């Protein structure tokens, strides 16, 4: 049976309670509880002005990013110029009671994956795209298209609308290609929007190879699934979206924050924009806001006119 260890702070609190109740003297309480007399009389020093400012900033970041752990909070503080380590921030968060509530763990898939082994080795090598569904407070459906670069974790598209057809998907994909260049591979599931003939023909003309995961195997498209988990946890579950316009603004702001500011553990706690800047110093940064709905409509008209001319 494992033996429980009582910390000096707990023993000091128990000794002070016994002495305050008049059950024994201070010396006897320290002998019984195996507590040093100096520990019994210890009084924590008053935090310095810098430490108070750090605690205040820590509370501000915890309020703004309630799902961030101490590693990401420490990375954000270092970006702001604070000379702190992750253990220091972990200790302060524990003292302030800022622990992130743990999420329920899912069952890990057992066995060897049967998916294709193509893995992104550079920017623009493999893009992944998928949909995630949500709803407004009034019950209106929301469908969100995500296009992600598997190597840099850049979110090229995060478009929300009531419904997105194959032509809409191609319009936003074409805009992402015009801004970031065409990928070599495109990974997706077997959704009707991704296997439509117009999509297959358009991708073939652009010389973009496709990677389709096996049905019922979302783990083979793990990058976009991981992004959707963070997106739902940090944005969709925290916001009350009343209208489509409000959803477009809120989700657009999240895409901006994700690309420009959010530290990514797999990128050495750099944001995707900072990581791309290190890889390609001359490349342009990720746009702050997604394209407007009018631009997407123009892209749909261009694709439709191209198809009619063919």
Structure characterization notes:
The protein is of the alpha/beta class and 310 residues long. 47% of the residues lie in helices and 11% in strands. The protein contains 13 helices and 5 strands. It has helices at residues 8-20, 26-33, 37-40, 49-64, 70-79, 86-96, 166-180, 192-195, 197-205, 222-236, 244-260, 272-279, 293-309; strands at residues 126-135, 141-149, 155-161, 185-188, 209-212. It has a 5-stranded mixed sheet with strand order 3-2-1-4-5, with helices on both faces. Helix 1 runs antiparallel to helix 2. The longest helix has 17 residues, at 244-260. It starts with 7 loop residues before the first helix and ends with a helix. Mean pLDDT is 84; it is low at 109-115, 284-294 and 303-310.
What's the structural blueprint in terms of helices and strands?
Layout (H helix, E strand, L loop, with lengths): L7 H13 L5 H8 L3 H4 L8 H16 L5 H10 L6 H11 L29 E10 L5 E9 L5 E7 L4 H15 L4 E4 L3 H4 L1 H9 L3 E4 L9 H15 L7 H17 L11 H8 L13 H17 L1
Parallel strand pairs: 1-4, 4-5
Antiparallel strand pairs: 1-2, 2-3
Helicity level: 40-55%
Which geometry do the CA atoms define? elongated
Low-confidence stretches: 109-115, 284-294, 303-310
- Largest sheet data: 5 strands, mixed
Please report the number of helical segments. Answer: 13
* N-to-C CA distance: 77 Å
Order the strands across the largest sheet as they lie in space: 3-2-1-4-5
Strand content: 5-15%
- Average per-residue pLDDT, rounded, comes to 84
Count the beta strands.
Answer: 5
Order of helices and strands: HHHHHHEEEHEHHEHHHH
Structural class: alpha/beta
- Rg for CA atoms: 26 Å
